[in-house]
Amino acid sequence: MILIVDDDAAVRSSLTFLLKRAGFEPEAVPGPNEALAIVRREAPQLILMDMNFTLTTTGEEGIQLLKQVKIFQPDVPVILMTAWGSISLAVQGMQAGAFDFVTKPWNNLVLLKSIRTALELNEQKKEKNSPLNRSDADNKFHFEKIIGQSDALMEVLGTVSRIAPTNASVLITGESGTGKELIAEAIHANSPRMKEAFVKVNLGGLSQSLFESEMFGHKKGAFTDAYIDRTGRFEMANKGTIFLDEIGDLELSCQVKLLRVLQDQTFEVLGDSRPRKVDIRVVSATNCNLPEMVATRTFREDLFYRINLITIHLPALRERKDDIPLLARYFADKQSDINGLPRVSFSSDAVGFLQRLPYPGNIRELKNLVERTMLVSGKSLLDVSDFEGQCLNLGNNQPVRKGGSVNFEGMTLDEIEKQTILQALETHEGNLSHVASALGISRAALYRRLEKYGIPTDK
């Protein structure tokens, strides 16, 4: 049973009719007292709840009812119904435990999609599965591109396996180089949309002037230099998945336009006023601290809660050291295949050395280090000294103790990272492209670190 709570009889009738046609069993009540009487005696599958039940429009009644419902039925998903003026209250409702919110007047397809997603996720929560192990993941899901066996990675893949079959929006967080794009691809590859398009967009590289044309497309003649029609990324991703990378770098003015599309899944092509609908799943990624950005008003709060229905945090490579030998082996074998080189092996000391490095550039940095060491040394057995030489070339010239361990004693991770960047800048004479490549990070990630540590960019 789906419980509808709204003081407007017309809204109750409309929703009841919509849900019955969609195959659900709705029950509608006009206010909090009737709703609480129901949730005290039984657990609905889902609750559609208005935020105002009297002449007031503050939305506080809805927040209060939500908190009461969560006391009696903490596991029942709640979707809030709100007018535009109550968006901030709806965000508070999300923080208080609501699953989602929809605006009035609602879009029937978007509302039904949100309901089905909520029900699917809630059903999966109830299933009592044994802890996911790697063999289970390999048998049921496609994770071929993801290398590792650490507990931290297995936890991530377990989450992916549970949420991939749904349409829930996903936010992937983690440092640069941790493999966020691979996780996004895995979500798509294990979803019902797997045969449709997976469209990647780097929002960090999109200026305000290019955003609408790139995302929504344009008609010929829509602006100067618009010589032909262009299909936007949202239209390209129709029926599939759109991956919004570096979403934390998106300008505020563009965030408003993006939010509008994500709310009703409609957009307008530049030069064409006819709205177009899309059916997409949204997966976003960032290495920024979005809650902190929301607090400083550099990222919209309503957009934040729209994109992170499910959050997956990818641990840094230094937090999953058990995966380093497997990753090093994988990168070495791949390099041998690409360049027709004989297979190489690693001494046990070399493996231990690799596991002790801090990797500010994460997996990307390990990949560069292994490949450079293979190509430069030309040896079939790689030892500590081979990797130490390449660490020095990369600017990671920390003092080395006897036995090959790097001396980071007394230094915090931030201090190690700052010193590594400074040394790389000196080694490469301030060439930022070379520095970023040597550290195994993108130029955008390097700029963020330079700003973080107050390092002048003209070094």
UniProtKB/TrEMBL annotation:
InterPro entries for this protein: AAA+_ATPase, AAA_lid_NorR, CheY-like_superfamily, Homeodomain-like_sf, HTH_Fis, P-loop_NTPase, Sig_transdc_resp-reg_receiver, Sigma_54_int
Modified residues (4-aspartylphosphate): 50
Domain named Response regulatory: residues: 1-119
Record's keyword terms, sorted: ATP-binding, DNA-binding, Nucleotide-binding, Phosphoprotein, Transcription, Transcription regulation
Database matches in PROSITE patterns: RESPONSE_REGULATORY (PS50110), SIGMA54_INTERACT_1 (PS00675), SIGMA54_INTERACT_2 (PS00676), SIGMA54_INTERACT_3 (PS00688), SIGMA54_INTERACT_4 (PS50045)
Keyword Transmembrane helix: no
Keyword presence, Aminoacyl-tRNA synthetase: no
All residue ranges annotated as the Sigma-54 factor interaction domain in the record: 146-375
Domain of life according to the entry: Bacteria
Name of the molecule in the record: Two-component system NtrC family response regulator
Organism for this UniProt entry: Parabacteroides faecis
Taxonomic lineage from the root: Bacteria, Pseudomonadati, Bacteroidota, Bacteroidia, Bacteroidales
